[in-house]
Design brief:
Helix content is 92%, strand content 0%. The chain is mostly helical. The protein is rod-shaped. It has 2 domains: 66 residues; 28 residues.
Length: 97
């Protein structure tokens, strides 16, 4: 028949084993959670970079829209350029004479 002390020791051993098992489980869970946090941080960093790139593209697009040439402006520019080319041609012709 086990003595009172032997029962207490067995109870203590059982509790220590359970405590160690619980510790191992919590340590594994903790490691998994740290991995998830690292993954989320990398995801956030990538999204911030993408956001910055999209903001840069948006600013470029806004600038392009501000300086966009309309159809009328294009026709005027072409006619002015044609006149300039004719004037240059006349000047070259005068230089050759």
């Amino acid at each position: 028949m086990p003595t009172q002390e032997e029962l207490l020791i067995k109870t203590l051993q059982t509790r220590v084993r359970l405590l160690m098992e619980r510790y191992r489980k919590l340590a594994a869970e903790n490691e998994e959670l740290y991995g998830m946090v690292d993954e989320k941080e990398k995801n956030i960093e990538a999204l911030l970079k993408e956001k910055a790139e999209l903001e840069r593209k948006y600013e470029t697009l806004k600038l392009a829209k501000m300086i966009e040439i309309g159809d009328n402006d294009m026709k005027n520019a072409k006619s002015r350029l044609s006149r300039l080319v004719r004037d240059v041609d006349k000047c070259i012709a005068l230089l050759k004479v």
